Amino acid sequence: MAELTAILAGASGLVGEQCLRHLLACGLHEKVVAFVRGPLSITHKRLEQRTIDYERLSRMSAFPRVQDIFCCLGTTMKKAGSEAAFRKVDYEYVVRLAETSKRSGADHFYLVSAVGADPNSRIFYSRVKGEAEKAVGRLGFAGLHVFRPSFLIGERSERRPGEAFGIAAARLVSIALVGAARKYRPIRAETVARAMVVIARERPAGTHVYTADAMETLATLL
């Protein structure tokens, strides 16, 4: 396989941080360009950090020419402060990244979405996630890989009491989540990241959606 380069957006987030760690460890890419708001504590000979303003992304000079885009962008309603601010990050920034990278030659897009994502959902959060998936899907990437975790487990830099309660509750009922309901089981951020890297190694063509059970299986392959 020819030497690959990658962009990772959201490298300081729960999944993004783990994804960066595994991308650098596996050696799949000659270079990983991390789009960041501020410097990361990690350094590596194959890591390049670029401070990004997503409002100006489409006008960014010398957009990196890469093959793989790992999109781990996302916020919460509480942190965003409004539906409009939430949509800006989870839809506008995601789609802007996809559009700009596609024009620059990227052919595989790895998107962290959410279980229940549906552009027709009555739930705002699920609707925005579904709309983002649909918009990216229209761009015609050779490979679009959508990862839909439920509650994410991992150490965050900020406290999210409501989310912690949800994870604890989901753990209690996980034993009852079988069959089609398995996709609602909580999943470790590292598991999602490992699954993303495994799929990047395989680079299958077409559009693929991975829920918790598939990600758990994929993660064992790394």
The averaged pLDDT comes out at: 90
Q: Roughly how many Å apart are the termini?
A: 18 Å
Ranges where pLDDT stays below 50 over 5 or more residues in a row are: none
Strand order of the largest sheet: 3-2-1-4-5-6-9
Share of β-strand residues: 15-25%
Shape: globular
Strand element count:
9
* Element string (H = helix, E = strand): EHEEEHHEHEEHEHEH
Structural class, from secondary structure content? alpha/beta
Helical content, roughly?
Answer: 25-40%
Largest beta-sheet characterization? 7 strands, parallel
Count of DSSP helices? 7
Rg over CA atoms: 17 Å
Your description of this structure?
With 222 residues, the protein is α/β, with parallel strands linked by helices. Helix content is 39%, strand content 19%. The strands form 2 sheets. The protein has a 7-stranded parallel β-sheet, sandwiched between helices. It has a two-stranded parallel ribbon with strand order 7-8. Helix 5 links the parallel strand 7 (152-153) and strand 8 (187-188). Helix 6 (189-202) packs across helix 7 (212-219). The longest helix is centred in the middle third of the chain and has 21 residues, at 83-103. The mean pLDDT is 90.
Which key phrases capture this entry?
globular, 39% helix, 222 residues, seven-stranded parallel beta sheet, two-stranded parallel sheet, alpha/beta, 9 strands, single chain, 7 helices
Give the helices and strands, then pairings.
Blueprint: E1 4-9, H1 14-26, E2 29-36, E3 47-51, E4 68-71, H2 77-80, H3 83-103, E5 108-112, H4 124-137, E6 143-147, E7 152-153, H5 161-173, E8 187-188, H6 189-202, E9 206-210, H7 212-219
Parallel strand pairs: 1-2, 1-4, 2-3, 4-5, 5-6, 6-9, 7-8
Helix pairs in contact: 1-6, 3-4, 6-7
